[in-house]
Design the sequence.
């Protein structure tokens, strides 16, 4: 059973939401963040990426960066640019992109559920990235980046959320980054209690995006629990947005490789054809139409790759994923990319950026590109249910949840 808890959100004051809300801290580098906030002193990136507030951008892990984040957050609270609700509530967060909506419940979820695998994960985390968010949470005494979670569709939860949306005025409504952002406050105690009860009947939640943020929140909470074992303390919970699985759209995570690993183009093609049937693509640029097929762009030409019989393992869920097949059957044995997490010769491009970006990069500084069919949400849930881990860079979720709309204070 999943524990979800209402909370007293710190949130933008009225019309300031559109100025404050910002993309998550980890989808851009420091220089890009500095350029994005130019002319907007209220952008939440100034708190999420506080290194950009200094004349010369600091190392993001410099202690002065976290101190600056705290200073800016406290200043916005003092000026009333952020307010905190008096009553514990749930919130609804809807995003509409290209005419397609995803609607989630903003709530707090339990660090114990995370520890006990009621909240399931599908990625490894890196200690350095965890530590950055730990230091950020400790400095602000708050969680600012919502964890993108999903659950298998539940008809009554969907009905309650839809009824609330249809009968109440939005708290916020604005467009940002090409996406309509609409939020509601669920402040009816009876509705809140019913949602708590319904989620208690849902067996598992799944982290879709935000593995480092959730791991950091849990580590901070467990440390604070050593001094204060009160199970009702806010630090026992972390900020989440919960979406039904059918609402989510996963984009492919395409690959670019700098060189052919010392092979001539003819030898590269010969080795590829030992494992894949290779034909000129029916369209250009080429996006695979189904699972188990791949696009390859090299020397101005798109090809369609299809694994030969026996190449794809049928008895291993993870190794049969398209991203694993490409890695295990081509990138590693042919192009000598043993560890895609650390190899500097490979780059990853979210499908939202389009196939023309692959063509552009191959024309500039890369030798070959691969387009993939998107991983399905069913595959992610199945991998998590087995307690396994997805290969690196398997999924790209879009649209991204904005930061700064809802903040969860630990005390």
Sequence:
């Amino acid at each position: 059973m999943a524990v979800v808890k209402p909370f007293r959100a710190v949130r933008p004051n009225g019309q300031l939401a559109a100025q404050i809300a910002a993309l998550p801290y980890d989808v851009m580098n420091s220089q890009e963040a500095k350029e994005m906030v130019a002319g907007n002193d209220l952008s939440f990136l100034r708190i999420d990426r506080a290194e950009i507030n200094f004349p010369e951008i600091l190392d993001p892990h410099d202690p002065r960066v976290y101190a600056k984040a705290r200073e800016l957050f406290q200043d916005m609270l003092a000026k009333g640019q952020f307010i905190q609700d008096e009553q514990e509530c749930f919130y609804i967060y809807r995003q509409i992109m290209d005419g397609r909506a995803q609607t989630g419940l903003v709530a707090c979820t339990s660090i114990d559920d995370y520890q006990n695998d009621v909240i399931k994960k599908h990625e490894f985390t890196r200690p350095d990235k965890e530590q950055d968010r730990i230091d950020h949470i400790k400095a602000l005494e708050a969680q600012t980046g919502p964890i993108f979670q999903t659950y298998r569709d539940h008809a009554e939860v969907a009905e309650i959320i839809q009824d609330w949306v249809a009968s109440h005025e939005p708290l916020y409504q604005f467009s940002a980054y090409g996406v309509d952002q609409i939020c509601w406050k669920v402040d009816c105690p009876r509705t809140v209690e019913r949602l708590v009860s319904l989620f208690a009947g849902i067996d598992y939640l799944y982290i879709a995006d935000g593995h480092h943020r959730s791991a950091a929140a849990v580590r901070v909470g467990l440390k604070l629990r050593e001094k204060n074992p009160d199970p009702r303390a806010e630090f026992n919970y972390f900020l989440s947005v919960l979406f039904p699985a059918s609402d989510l759209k996963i984009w492919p995570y395409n690959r670019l490789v700098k060189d052919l690993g010392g092979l001539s183009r003819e030898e590269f093609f010969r080795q590829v054809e030992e494992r894949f049937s290779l034909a000129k693509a029916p369209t250009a640029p080429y996006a695979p139409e189904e699972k188990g097929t791949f696009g390859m762009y090299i020397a101005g030409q798109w090809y369609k790759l299809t694994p030969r019989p026996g190449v794809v393992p049928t008895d291993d869920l993870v190794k049969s994923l398209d991203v694993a097949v490409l890695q295990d059957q081509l990138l590693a044995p042919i192009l000598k990319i043993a560890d895609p997490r650390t190899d500097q010769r490979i780059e990853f491009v979210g499908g939202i950026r389009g196939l023309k970006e692959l063509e552009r990069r191959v024309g500039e500084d890369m030798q070959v590109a691969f387009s993939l069919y998107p991983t399905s949400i069913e595959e992610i849930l199945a991998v998590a249910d087995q307690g396994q881990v997805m290969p690196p860079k398997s999924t790209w979720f879009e649209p991204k949840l904005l930061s700064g709309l809802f903040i969860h204070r630990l005390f």
Remarks:
- The radius of gyration is 23 Å.
- Residues 211-227 form the longest helix (17 residues).
- The CA atoms of residues 122 and 390 lie 5 Å apart.
